[in-house]
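[SOLVED] Need 3D model of a two-part complex

Original post:
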Amino acid sequence: MKHFPCPKLLRRNSTSKLVSASLFVLPALILVLVFSIYPVLMSFRYSFTDWNGVSADYAFVGFDNYKNVISSDEFKTLFFNTFYLIILYVPVLNILAIFFSVIIYDIGRAANIYKVILFLPNIVSMVVVGFIWRTIYNPATGPLAYLLNALGCENLVQDWLGQKETVMPALSVSIIWYAVGFYVLIYLGGLSTVPNELYEAGAVDGITWWQKLFRITLPMISQSITINIIVSTIAILTLFDLPYVLTQGGPGYASQTMALMSYQYAFKAMSQGKAMALAVMLTLITILFAVCELFLLNRKEDR
Amino acid sequence: MKKYIRRISLVLSVAMLTALFAGCSSSSDAGETSQASQQGDTTITVALMSNDWLDAAEQIAADFTAKYGINVEYTPMPGEVEEYLQPKAAAGSLPDVMSINAGSFGADLAENDLIIDLSETDAAKNMQESLKPVFTSESGKLFGIAGGLSSTLIYYNKAMFEDAGITEEPKNWDEFLEVCEKLKAKGYAPLAVAMGDGAISNTCWSTGNAVEIAATNPNYITEIANGTFNFDTPEQARIFERVKILNDNGYLLTGSVSAMVSTLLDSFKQEKAAMCFQGIWMAGSFMESPFEVGMMVPPWNMEGQPQAVVLGTETGFAVAKGPNEEAAIKFVNYIANEEGFYTYQQARGSIPSLIEYDESKVKMEDTVKEYVDRLLDIEVTGAYWFETLPPSVYARLPQTFQQVATGEITPEDAAATLQELYTTQS
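Solution:
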């Protein structure tokens, strides 16, 4: 004979579970509301004001900050730099990370050593990474200049961070050096979920290394690719520390990112309104990119 | 059992919430606590720009505690003063004592009652009157006590000069270019400047401003403050043009366009450049170099123009409004007027800006003393960028210099850019 619990008791149980669960979530929720949601809403509000960051008084100026930011000479450069980094950095970084992870996965015994080497820059603060690369790129006293001089290539020594033509590639190299290890780890996680039987079946069919990569590995780790592309795009759109330490956005605005410019408006030009306006635009652009990528990549995964 | 779990979860949640709000006590509570503690065990927070005198700053804090029984929680200020203080001002958490620059930022803090008027303090009474206007806000509050007098100059490597056959210091711009040419011909990088950060504003802009603007318009500071100044002039363009000439002729050390000030100092100390454009605050450090270092007034004046120099204030000291004001004022008096001042001066080799002080306790190399005497004889002087320019303009100076140096814009465009930024701010 079956015993069914009383519906009233069931309801009471589920209500009390809900209360306990809500109470547990409440502190975290309050933290998120106070330290994330509230500042975001206030940033949005301040983007319509002329607040200088110090004064208690400010006035609402409508969309003036947005208009001023968009019409400024440097905005075009900012936009160009951001897209340059996305177009160069996201594909190059992900291709390199896939390449390293596939090799490391195949290597076997020495894999851990390579993982450590690749991941090592990631445990260092980005500020330290900035100082390391500043030293490397220093054309007067840096090791790169020393090496080129020693090899008799003096004419190749130049101010890599002080020229419009070279600053963005130089910046990209340092970002990739810093970040690649993190993405390799995500790809390795993806690779570990690919069933070995697929490779064994492929080997029986006599497929080449490239066929194995394009026909089995990449389709099977498509979820990791999606995650990495979205994460790397967000990381590059909000990039601040490395260009701040390495170039301060210079020469001129040649390596300025939107996040860095927002900081300079806020804490150097004392124009919080413009800083917030740019930050709001950056947030919207980041969301737009992430959603579009997610949509496109998910469709590809579904196929 | 379930009943117990529910009760435990409720107690835990309430505890977590209580802990969360415990840190959000009102400022009046904090005030009461501090006032109570002041009678017994007062601690003041001190944040100073002390990258090149960190040991001395810590020594001053320790000596102050020993003398007055007031504890000091010391933090070195990283980066620039304004960048460090602005978020703290917005959050209402300024340190009790802080470094402050003369100019609009400090004045803003004073006008918003975030830092106090120091005009009645002993340190203020012993500060030279001529330095007070740049540390005074619109409503007349003296918001900072100057750390000393300051100037920028060109240091040079005497051996390199001798090797290039240069026997005399150049007296004007054309002679300076000749010197650069001789050094370059001998295989030396003539001059190191840093355009990657605010150092270029201290040196090339402020000196150019002294020569081109201050020499002909003594009211320029008032005009800038009033919003009636015009930056879009040939004189302003010439300030930028000098850097372009130096860069185009290969007279700047490779890397100067992107160099930060620390790189610049290292380059000169490692004898990578024959000259280095820097502040007088580096004199102590440079004089300890293994090679002989000379000091010259920057010959930025054209032939026929009088020599002009930057003569401004060193970063000073301010006190935040709050419950620890009294103890903080004692600290400012100590570091700017009493024993602490000598510890500070000896570490930096700076030029005292006090009316009365014990000269026997002031440490200055003979070469530096000689240079200071020459400096004080020069009639035309100009102020530093941070003492005169509004933030929207000075924030853009380094980038504008870089754009001129790399040929992205012309010196005339640079002058027009400053005017546009100035007009928008006004």
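Edit: Confidence is low (pLDDT under 50) at residues 19-39 of chain B.
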